[in-house]
Amino acid sequence: MICENYTNIRKILLFRPHDLRDIMSFHTHKTSIEEGDTLMLYLSPSSLLTITVNSLTKNKHGATVENILQTTQGALKVRNLIGQKYGSRIELSKGSAYALHPTPELWTVTLPHRTQIIYTPDISMILFQLELRPGCIVIESGTGSGSLSHALIRAIKPSGHLYTFDFHEHRASVARSEFQSHGVGDFVTVAHQDVCQNGFGSEVERKADAVFLDLPHPWEAVPHAVNAMKDSGGRLCSFSPCMEQVQRTCEKLRGLGFVEISTLEVLIKEYQVSARTMSVMDLDSINANDNGPNAVWKDPLKIVSCNAPLTLAGHTGYLTVATLPPLLSRVPIDSVNGTNQG
């Protein structure tokens, strides 16, 4: 609704600050490129850029000049993008590129790294395991570079909300600005907070459907996650690169009454499809009384084969997932001695 209103009155708001006019379409799909949009410029399979469509820019002397982007395919006058259709081919001085509609997947590939990020294979499994749908209330800690955050927002909007926390003030501030400029600021609340020490705050107490933890010591945040989840229960997922972190987290989850605890690792195994030539023996020409190597071969046969890779992509992290039962059916267990704490 807000993005639509900005679109309708955009022409009379050109004097307003840039962040108010930025109606880029992570929230809603758009057909044509407008001034202030952010898009993905596809140059080659190994070269993808995120650019903001500003016709003018300031040079190092502070003077306003025409915005010209230099790429591996040559120069691009950014004003030439305005009015083009998303997905269309854009001519550059030495080649061409494609202007792509922004998506969380493309943002993951092109975002500026402030921390190590979670990539699409793990993100897809996280969304599946957290059982997200429109209307869910989700807690994320930490925010990092915002790779997962964009995917979470897409899964829960328009009626859901993401509360994301980071202990680093600058990272939280930059992420907040990015969400606003990407048009999804209404669906996310960014907080600078150490959740292991201070929890998630009273604002989200007993409101969350799901909690995601990407922390050095996730087991310290698990009790706070219990306080934040709804009385009806919910799902929790923790991303950890080391098995020792997984073990301590599982002990804490079990001790606080979580069930269905499991740990996953997502590894990509990409099969290669290729055409091959295979020699075929003519079995009808074989003489049973012939003891010599006199085999007759047919014309080579061309086939399409599927080959498994010789190696797999390296380890990224372990995903530990668990379910918190409804309040009345929770049975906290002492994970050390196996005694009932309740």
UniProtKB/TrEMBL annotation:
<keyword id="KW-0819">tRNA processing</keyword>
<dbReference type="GO" id="GO:0030488">
    <property type="term" value="P:tRNA methylation"/>
</dbReference>
<dbReference type="InterPro" id="IPR049470">
    <property type="entry name" value="TRM61_C"/>
</dbReference>
<dbReference type="InterPro" id="IPR029063">
    <property type="entry name" value="SAM-dependent_MTases_sf"/>
</dbReference>
<dbReference type="InterPro" id="IPR014816">
    <property type="entry name" value="tRNA_MeTrfase_Gcd14"/>
</dbReference>
<keyword id="KW-0808">Transferase</keyword>
<dbReference type="GO" id="GO:0005634">
    <property type="term" value="C:nucleus"/>
</dbReference>
<protein>
    <recommendedName>
        <fullName>tRNA (adenine(58)-N(1))-methyltransferase</fullName>
        <ecNumber>2.1.1.220</ecNumber>
    </recommendedName>
</protein>
<keyword id="KW-0949">S-adenosyl-L-methionine</keyword>
<feature type="domain" description="tRNA (adenine(58)-N(1))-methyltransferase catalytic subunit TRM61 C-terminal">
    <location>
        <begin position="97"/>
        <end position="294"/>
    </location>
</feature>
<dbReference type="GO" id="GO:0031515">
    <property type="term" value="C:tRNA (m1A) methyltransferase complex"/>
</dbReference>
<dbReference type="GO" id="GO:0160107">
    <property type="term" value="F:tRNA (adenine(58)-N1)-methyltransferase activity"/>
</dbReference>
<keyword id="KW-0489">Methyltransferase</keyword>
<keyword id="KW-0539">Nucleus</keyword>
<dbReference type="Pfam" id="PF08704">
    <property type="entry name" value="GCD14"/>
</dbReference>
